[in-house]
C-alpha cells in the first residue's frame, strides 16, 4: 500500500484512508437509490438500473483509485440522469436503448478528448460565469424534480404550478426533509442516506396503520436477491448515431465535461492535491477515468458516470490518495444483492435527497459577478431556463447564444473565443435538430 499510494508522502496512513473512503461512500451512497428512481421513470427496470449503478460506481471508483490515484469517487451523475430521463427519453421521445447508445458514444468522445487533452482546452474556452450558472441551473432542476416526486409541487391550471394540499405522504416528506437538512447542517456523515432510511421507515405505516384510505407506499419484497443484469449491453449503438440524436450526445458531452472538470479542480484546490505546476494531481488520468465511466455506463445500463463532489467529505476526513477511492468503491459492491431492499424506497423518501443535492449544486452562483450585466444576463438565462424549460440542453444552448450575442453588440467581440464560436454553431444545430 505504501509503495503504491505513497501514503507517507501525502501525510496520511492506512487507517485514515479507510475511514475517509467510508465517509465518501456514505456521502455518495444515496445515488444507489436515487439513480434508479430517476431512470426507472424512463421505462427502465428499477432493479436493472440499481445493478448498473453499482457496477459503474464500483469499477469506476476503483479505476480512479488505482489508475489516477486520486481520492475521488465516481458514480452516475446527478443532473446527467435527469437529462437522460426528462429531456432525452420523456422530452425528446428517444427510446431509452437509444439514449444508452448516446451515453456510450459520448463516453467515446470524452475518451478521445481526454487522451489528446482537447477536453481541457475546450472547457477553458467556455466563459466561467456560464459554467457556474449551468451547475446552479442543474441544481434547481434537480430540486424541482424532488418536489415534484414528493407531490409537494403539482400542476395547477390557474398558476401553471402550485402546492399540493397537505396529506400524510406530504407530511412524511417534509419530516424527512427537515431531518436530512438538520443532519447536513450538523455535518453528520451519511446524513443524506440516513434521511432516506428514516423517510422510508416513516412511510411504512401510511395506508396500513393510518391514512388507510391511501394505498400503501411500501410493499415488502424481501431483502436479498440476485443482481439484475437485464440492462447490460441493451444499448442501441446504430440508431444512437442518427443525426436527430446528435443534440443528446452533445448535451451529455458538455454537461459531463463541465461537471467533471469543475469537480476535479475544486477538490484539488481544497485538498491541495496539486502537482509541481499547480495543476490538479493526475488530471489527465482522472479525466480518462471519467470518460471510461461514461462509456461503461452506456454498456451497463445507466446514465453517464462522473466524479462526485461529495468526495469532499472523505477528503475533509483526511483522504489524500487513491486508497480512499478504492475503499469507497468496494463498499458499493454488496448492494448488488440488496436490490429488493432498496426497491422498497418510495419516491417521497428520495425526494429530500434530490432537494438538498440541488442546494449543494447551486453554490457556484456566488462566483458570478451579478453587477457585470453582460456576464450576468447570459448566466441568469442559462440558470433559470434549465428548470423553467425542464431541459438542461435548452438552458445550456441559450446561455451560450445570449453570451455571444451580448458580447458582439456591446463591442466586446474579443471575449468570444474561436472555440465558443464553434460551440455556438453546435448549439444552433441542436436547436434546428430538436
Overall structural domain count: 1
Order of helices and strands: HHHHEHHHHEEHHHHEHHHHHHH
SS element count, helices: 19
As a percent range, the share of strand residues is under 5%
Radius of gyration in whole Å, from Cα?
21 Å
| Strand runs, count | 4
Mean pLDDT across residues: 85
> Which structural class best describes the helix and strand composition?
mainly alpha
Sheet with the most strands, sense and barrel status: 2 strands, antiparallel
What sort of overall outline do the alpha carbons produce when their principal axes are compared?
Answer: globular
What helical percentage do the residues reach?
55-70%
Distance between the termini: 51 Å
Strand order, main sheet: write it out.
Answer: 1-4
Gist of the model:
With 434 residues, the chain is mostly helical.
Account of the protein in words:
It contains 19 helices and 4 strands. With 434 residues, the protein is mainly α. Helix 17 packs antiparallel against helix 18 (392-409). The chain is globular and about 65 Å long.
Topology record:
Layout: H1 2-5, H2 14-28, H3 31-39, H4 46-68, E1 74-76, H5 80-89, H6 96-115, H7 118-125, H8 128-149, E2 153-156, E3 160-163, H9 168-185, H10 191-203, H11 246-271, H12 283-300, E4 305-307, H13 312-316, H14 322-332, H15 339-343, H16 347-361, H17 373-388, H18 392-409, H19 418-433
Antiparallel strand pairs: 1-4, 2-3
